[in-house]
């Protein structure tokens, strides 16, 4: 294995890496760092936990100069990811004299202006707030030498592509740029073609979708039974747990049920204020909460080394999302476990993901003796029963066999791109039954 000392990095950087226990480089670091140090652009495809941050951060720290203004810019889709990247870069830069500022929406502008006034060389930002600073003149990009787009596919999903193009058009033409993305949809490839020059591509995930070091299993069950099995799986766990849900509604419901069962759980989802999200993450990171319930987009940037178990409460909509999720466990070479709950309506999506998993995958139905009874969709009837009241679900705290009885609360109308107004006009009610796609 290649060691960081062999990459020609400054002694100040190596000293910080030694203190952090970093000695041998990960594959994406070994591939990208020499290329970026030669000032050539990079396109990297790598999932969470692969060491992306060091891959772009170390070349930046090697090549910029303290007290010479903003020379590097990293753009991330979410506040949590921006804060995580900035935190790592500060650790790497401990002995270099290079300062980093984090710029994101939801935090007071005054705090960020004070940090910028003290002088920084690296900006880690979310697109919207960065544009706010650019328009008011508190950030200028004329001396930027390095640009990084992290989680580019997520920025595409969140509608940030126009913002990214606006920002990149303000940077110098002579710059070194790297783009990292778990998936490479056409729009991202077009963006790369327009703004990157002679880029070296490293599609590492094409050969490394294994989830190595993670004990992976799946359970095919009725959607309404998921919560009962969730409790069964989390009871014996000593470390921390992350439960991933596909919608903000499901996230709220699962977190509420866990509270009712006397578990210390916190939630992160897109509608929460930044202050509440930071409070939830601080509680989880400090160990005051044992369980984090999160949506996919809101969860980007979660990096807690003690996570013992990841539960996919819902099957993700892409194979790479699956690997992003389970990559929250088995960090820094540790072992971890991941369990996916597969509702009957999600079996087809799960089968597509299974084909990409190149390590042992446990069929928990066989191990636990649970029979799969997927009904014939042509014979299924949709009852006319509705849940009334406001947009919140009614909860049944009856016997454990009752389970998670509002499975198709989902509707998740705005999450699935349906007409939100129509959803609200009927008081948040949803028809019970049918094919639930969370």
Description:
By secondary structure, the chain is of the alpha/beta class. The chain folds into 2 domains: 4-206, P-loop containing nucleotide triphosphate hydrolases (Rossmann fold), CATH 3.40.50.300; 214-378, 3-Layer(aba) Sandwich (Rossmann fold). It has 17 helices and 14 strands. Helix 5 (109-117) links the parallel strand 3 and strand 4. The chain starts with 10 loop residues before the first helix and ends in a 13-residue tail after the last helix.
CATH class of the largest domain: Alpha Beta
Distance between the termini: 42 Å
- Could you tell me the CATH topology label of the largest domain: Rossmann fold
Rg, alpha carbons:
23 Å
CATH homologous superfamily annotation of the largest domain: P-loop containing nucleotide triphosphate hydrolases
Annotated CATH architecture of the largest domain: 3-Layer(aba) Sandwich
Strand count, sense and barrel status of the largest sheet are: 7 strands, parallel
- What percent of residues adopt helix (DSSP H or I)? 25-40%
Helices, by number, come to 17
How would you describe the shape?
globular
Q: Report the count of strand segments.
A: 14
């Amino acid at each position: 294995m290649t060691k960081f000392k062999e990459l020609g990095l400054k002694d100040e950087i190596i000293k910080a890496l030694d203190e952090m226990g970093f000695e041998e480089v990960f594959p994406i670091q070994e591939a990208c760092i020499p290329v970026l140090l030669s000032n050539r652009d990079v396109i990297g495809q790598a999932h969470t936990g692969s060491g992306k941050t060091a891959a772009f951060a170390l070349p930046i720290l090697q090549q910029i100069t303290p007290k010479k203004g903003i020379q590097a810019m990293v753009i991330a889709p979410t506040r949590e990811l921006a804060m995580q990247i900035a935190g790592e870069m500060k650790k790497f830069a401990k002995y270099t004299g290079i300062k980093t500022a984090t710029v994101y929406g939801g935090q007071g502008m005054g705090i960020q202006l004070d940090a910028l006034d003290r002088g920084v060389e690296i900006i880690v930002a979310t697109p919207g707030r960065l544009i706010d600073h650019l328009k008011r003149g508190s950030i200028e990009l004329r001396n930027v030498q390095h640009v990084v787009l992290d989680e580019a596919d997520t920025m595409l999903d969140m509608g940030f592509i126009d913002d990214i193009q606006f920002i990149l058009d303000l940077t110098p033409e002579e710059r070194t740029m790297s783009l990292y993305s778990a998936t490479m949809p056409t729009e991202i490839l077009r963006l790369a073609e327009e703004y990157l020059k002679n880029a070296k591509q490293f599609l590492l995930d094409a050969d490394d979708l294994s989830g190595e070091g993670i004990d992976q299993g799946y359970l095919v069950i009725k959607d309404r039974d998921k919560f009962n099995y969730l409790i069964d799986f989390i009871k014996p766990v000593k470390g921390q747990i992350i439960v991933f849900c596909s919608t903000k509604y499901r996230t709220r419901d699962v977190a509420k049920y866990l509270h009712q069962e006397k578990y210390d759980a916190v939630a992160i989802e897109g509608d929460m204020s930044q202050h509440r999200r930071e409070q939830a993450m601080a509680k989880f990171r400090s160990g005051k909460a044992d369980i984090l319930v999160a949506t996919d987009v809101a969860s980007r940037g979660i990096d807690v080394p003690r996570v013992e178990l990841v539960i996919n409460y819902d099957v993700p909509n892409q194979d790479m999302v699956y690997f992003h999720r389970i990559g929250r466990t088995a960090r820094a070479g540790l072992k971890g476990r991941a369990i996916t709950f597969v509702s009957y309506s999600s079996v087809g999506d799960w089968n597509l993901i299974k084909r990409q998993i190149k390590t042992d995958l446990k069929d928990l139905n066989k191990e636990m003796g649970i029979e799969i009874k997927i009904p014939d969709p042509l014979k299924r009837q949709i009852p006319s029963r509705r849940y009334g009241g406001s947009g919140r679900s009614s909860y049944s705290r009856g016997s454990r066999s009752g389970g998670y009885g509002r499975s198709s609360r989902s509707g998740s109308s705005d999450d699935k791109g349906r007409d939100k107004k129509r959803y609200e006009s009927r008081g948040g009610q949803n028809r019970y039954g049918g094919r639930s796609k969370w």
